[in-house]
Amino acid sequence: MKFKSYYWAIIGVAVAVVLILFVLPRVFPSVSSSGSNPHGNQPGQTVDYTPEIQAYQDLIKANPNDGVALEGLGSVYEKMGQYLNAKDNFEKACEIKPNDAEYHGRLGEAYFALDMTDIAMREFNNGLAIDPNNQAILIDVGIVYSRDGNNDQARTTWQKAENVNPTNDLGHTATELIAQMDKPASTTGKAKKK
Description:
By secondary structure, this protein is mainly α. It contains 9 helices and no strands. The longest helix is centred in the first third of the chain and has 23 residues, at 5-27.
């Protein structure tokens, strides 16, 4: 039996979705709460997200209640800096699966990027009510506290994130954030003695 061309297209989309959802996030950590991607584009370099967007939209068209596809599409929009579109997709994912802590965390990140801190914290707290040990959300909450000048609360929250699992990537991130708080103020601009 010969495979028809549309079978290959379906297989190709499925492989792309698996790569996007499961492989790439483990190789490249997700976008931070501030919306900056540490593995982002170099100056002058642009990325065409059209294939990813189309793949997710096709999945959503086939199943409008596909929370994973909605979260994936929201993540793409977040990478592109389109935080309103990201928020809309994360909200839909939360409506479909309200007991998924990750979806609430991602929605909180989008609100934080939109400078809607109160709503971001509400979503982070919704996520932590479901999973009090969600490292990603704990790190995000610490970032909000730190940005607002609540360094003691930030340190406590990051310490909790580190304690959940100090050996994984998120545990290392928490450790680094705590260490950055402990560094004395930078002395850049002062002449060094020889």
